[in-house]
Hints:
- The protein is an alpha/beta fold.
- Helices cover 42% and strands 13% of the residues.
- It has a 7-stranded parallel β-sheet with strand order 3-2-1-4-5-6-7, sandwiched between helices.
- Helix 4 packs parallel to helix 5.
- The radius of gyration is 18 Å and the shape is globular.
Amino acid sequence: MKTLSGKVAVVAGGTRGAGRGIAVALGATGATVYVTGRSVKGQLSDIGRSETIEETAEQVTAAGGIGIPVRTDHTREPEVRELFERVKEEQDGRLDLLVNDVWGGEKLTAWGKTFWEHSLGDGLLMQRRAVHSHMITSYYAAPLMTARKQGLIIEITDGTESKYRGNLYYSLAKISVIHLAEAMAAELKPYGVSCVALTPGFLRSEEMLEHFGVSEENWRDAAKKDPHFIASETPAYIGRAVAALASDPRIAEKSGRALSTWGLSEEYDFTDADGDRPHWGRYFKEHVEPYL
């Protein structure tokens, strides 16, 4: 259903994983989606993955929307400012949705190390990529929304609470953007703009599938290596969650909250790409938390 036809979205960090799933799901609702990131054809980022923003934009268009790739390093303020100047010019000042999905911490997190054993440089770079980039991006996106007194900002994170996540620098990055959503929601409220944080469960991304040596067709085989993978979800799940939030005329009632894919799937009645409805929250409480 073209519930977002005519709407304009920016998916920051839309190259792969959750970002790609979100961009494509928005395309399926008819939205115009600016897909941003550092990996473009012929010039990949230091993450070393092969996916590009052009590929994501093509998938957005194929799904029924309009995909527009714009190479942007969201840690560089001039590039972010230029991005939103372009959106303002091309879309007559319209911006309905910003999804802050920039992460870039895959190779920076040293699990099993204390904060004083961990590389300080990597830990600080993680904050630059996963927190500062969100702050810079929202800074330039918000005026387009407040000028029209409508819009939604979604902060993609890991988890809905401020609990320790096994690594100080990782925890700081993920918890910080939850508070960003809460704080921005408070300051945006008088202008009719909403902001929420959103977490997926165990994400079955391209990188995770490759890590376990499986494909989407036989992904359950990976449970032999990690039994918790049986409760994983595809990037389409969080994509449908974002599309549902962006289509909700009562989204202001959720502003400032930290939400989950599994909770929203029950509220908005959507499923994952394979028709399942994974519930990582319940699975984690029953099968992971007791052994921590």
